[in-house]
Amino acid sequence: MPPLLSIEEALARVLARARPLEPEPVPLAEAAGRVLAQDVASLIDLPPFPSSAMDGFAIRAADVPGELPIVFRIAAGLPAERPLEAGEAMEISTGGTVPEGADAVVPIENVVAIDNRVHVPEAVATGAHIRPIGGDVRAGDALLAAGTVLGAAQVGALAAAGIAEVSCARRPRVVVLSTGTELRPPGEPLDPGQIYESNGPMLVAAFEAAGARVDRIGPVADDEEEHRRALEWGLEADVLVSSGGVSVGPHDLVRRILAELGAEEDFWGVAVRPGKPIAFATRGSTLVFGLPGNPVSALVAVELFVRPVLRALQGDPSPGPVYETARLAASVRRNATRDELVRARRARDGDEFVLDPVTGQESHMIARAAGADALVLVPAGEGELAAGEAARYLRLS
Ligand code: AMP
Ligand code: MG
Is the pTM here over 0.90, yes or no? Predict the structure, then answer.
């Protein structure tokens, strides 16, 4: 094996190849989770008219305290048919258009209204409870910047500003390929020596959650022809992610056949545990990850490298991985030469989390990993990280 890259170096190399894909129009209803490819300005003043912040009465501040006739009842969406004259009141609902001539709204709680007259016992400040035109944002003003990840509030703001469609980098097409003669799909009986194929479903779940469109091939046997056919097809995608077959065994065919198909290997081997034999290659604009077959190794590689690439391809300027910090609940031995991602559970300790490593840290133990919700980064070195020490970790979703 060539010298191992550090996690940071490997991440920098993969991200250097992950330019945002070309933008496409996206209807607002499908925009959640996408990343804006362009700045967006508001199409309208928001609010588009002076509107009432309360249920109450539109009046002139100069006319109160006093008793005023109620000359109109304004509902949201149904403005008054004429301006308010001096000495008049109009009933108004929250969101109703404040009529011309009025300069304040008195909340219903602060008045006594009987039949068609309203008694306002106290003075009212000019402008009270009126939301001015454009008080939230003005027509033509910046609403959201390119690179914004659209969450619920952003989708709401776009809709409020009258925007029905946005421009976002298209979602990457990913092919997930599982290799291994021993693999059977869940739902079928296992023959001796076989195990269930778990990386395929796991990778599909991870990549769809990251915003990709995913197709899956395999499992394919450790056979050159089968590998060649499957890899050739996968190389048509934006990102090809294989699992298995990247170690040094006689049945590890992925790297050699990728090379035969014209993929150029950028690196093979990262100083990380688990996940060391990860390979990264490119062919044209296609990015290729050869992940190790052990399920926890594959999972770690997804969190460290593949998810960030999928986010970067969608234009996310902070594609991750995002490390947080918390204290360890128990000590963890360090590996002398490789950074380790230790599966842990986050437990509440007052206002903080503590990280409790799960038992069963071997790279085939996906069932144990399923009980974890964090990957704790234990830097390579001598000795241990002590209980109570702060550690960086990634959240597993
Ligand atoms: P490999 O990297 O092909 O040498 O595989 C390493 C280990 O991971 C072996 O025990 C394989 O059986 C297992 N493995 C490989 N691919 C998968 C998969 N898709 N699902 C579950 N286990 C796998
Ligand atoms: Mg294999």
Answer: yes
**Which of 204, 227, 276, 294 should be mutated for ligand 1, with most atoms under 8 A from CB?**
294
What contacts 249, CB < 8 A, 6 or more positions away? none
**Closest ligand by atom to 243 CA:** 1
Whole-angstrom distance, CA of residue 139 vs CA of residue 196: 57
Positive/negative CA dihedral, 261, 265, 268, 270: negative
Amino acid of residue 307: R
Say what the pLDDT of residue 140 is: 98
Ligand 1 close to Cβ of residue 290 (< 6 A): no
* CA 259 distance to own-chain centroid: 34
For ligand 1, the distance from its centroid to the CA atom of residue 7, given in whole angstroms, is 22
pLDDT of residue 1: 85
Q: Across residues 156-166, what is the average pLDDT? A: 98
The answer to whether 274 and 297 have CB atoms below 8 angstroms apart is yes
Binding site membership of 247 for ligand 1 (Cβ less than 6 Å): yes
Reference 167, options 275, 52, 22, 303; nearest CA is: 22
State how far the Cα of 123 lies from the Cα of 396, in Å rounded to an integer. 57
Exposed e or buried b per residue across 221-249, where buried means at least 16 C-beta atoms within 10 angstroms of its C-beta: bbeeebbbebbeebbebbbbbbbbbbbee
Number of the ligand closest to the Cα of 278: 1
Is 199 close to ligand 1, i.e. is its CB under 6 Å away? Answer: yes
Cα 240 from Cα 178, distance rounded (Å): 11
Half-sphere exposure of 355 (CA within 13 A, CB side): 30
